[in-house]
Specification:
ABC transporter involved in vitamin B12 uptake, BtuC, mainly alpha, 13 helices, 312 residues
């Protein structure tokens, strides 16, 4: 997928010319496109896919719900709304945008945890997703209202609604990689306790783990991952659903194996969607968020219609 991302694009530079350029031939225009346009968006797509894949797997394990996903439950929408509000208020630095995205994602995670505590809601995957969809819709509506207030900020805010990894310099990673690094340390710390919690909270306590502390660490990790991904690419929906669905099909229900497999599968899904977004409407590009929705919606329907959603 990395190679496809470097070779394929919506512009006039063909895959053959791009391959020749990568193997040493002199094509100045092609080299500029690859090095300045395709390479940065490839790296950003890899980081975004890794973050959203891990976040989805963590959310599903914590809520024991195979339909839990940052985009469906309002975590991504909360992050995007916070960024949109910050832009409207005059925020412009990448650092501030990243921090605000983390706070918005943290608020969304808090609402997810609160929803799982509602009687009868946390144990019903479909009802939880419907509640999350309602929250996401509300936040997206509020974000749209912000666009009407200030036309100057409307173009910037529109990015957070559609989602894209195009046109971003590699410098944006400088503000997000530290947060992702902290999240990865939290993932390493909670992987084994989450596997124990899959046996039930009483079993986890009997093995010496503290469910409340584990939930807090998972919440922080998800907020860091989703906030970073949103700061990089906007609110991308369904990635956190598709990636764990694929990894569980390969690795089984063990959350530790699922988390490890999310590292390559997450970037592969986002890279594949980004390549499709360049080619499906060439010479124009379709927003990445639209492509991820088109890919993820059938997966969601397949899980629901199967009628035998795996117990996490």
């Amino acid at each position: 997928m990395i190679l496809a991302s470097l070779l394929l694009g919506a512009g006039p530079i063909s895959a053959h010319v791009s391959l020749e350029t990568l193997t040493g031939s002199t094509h100045p225009d092609a080299w500029f496109v690859i090095s300045e346009l395709r390479f940065p968006r490839t790296v950003i797509a890899v980081v975004t896919g890794l973050a959203l894949g891990l976040a989805g797997a963590l959310l599903q394990s914590m809520t024991r719900n195979p339909l839990a996903e940052p985009g469906l439950l309002g975590v991504s929408a909360g992050s995007g709304f916070a960024v949109a509000l910050a832009i409207l208020l005059g925020a412009s630095t990448a650092t501030l945008t990243t921090v605000v995205a983390q706070l918005g994602a943290l608020a969304g995670c808090g609402l997810v945890i609160a929803a799982t505590r509602v009687q009868g809601l946390g144990n019903d995957p479909v009802r939880l997703v419907l509640a999350g969809a309602t929250l996401s819709g509300l936040l997206l509506a509020l974000t749209s209202m912000l666009m009407l207030i200030d036309q100057r900020a409307a173009d910037e805010i529109r990015f957070w609604i559609t989602g894209s990894v195009a046109g971003k310099p590699l410098a944006v990673l400088a503000t997000t990689l530290p947060f992702i690094g902290m999240a990865l340390m939290l993932v390493l710390a909670v992987a084994k306790p989450l596997a124990a919690m899959s046996l039930g909270e009483k079993a986890a306590v009997g093995l010496g783990h503290h469910p409340g502390r584990i939930r807090l660490m998972v919440t922080l990790a998800v907020a860091l991952l989703v906030g970073s991904a949103t700061a990089l690419a906007g609110p991308l929906i369904f990635v956190g659903l598709v990636v764990p669905f694929i990894t569980r099909a390969i690795a089984g229900p063990d959350i530790r194996r699922t988390l490890w497999l999310c590292l390559p599968v997450g970037p592969a899904v986002v890279l594949g969607a980004d390549v499709v977004s360049r080619l499906v409407a060439a010479p124009a590009e379709m927003p990445l968020g639209v492509v991820t929705a088109l890919i993820g919606a059938p997966v969601l329907l397949a899980i629901v219609r199967a009628g035998r959603m795996p117990s996490l």
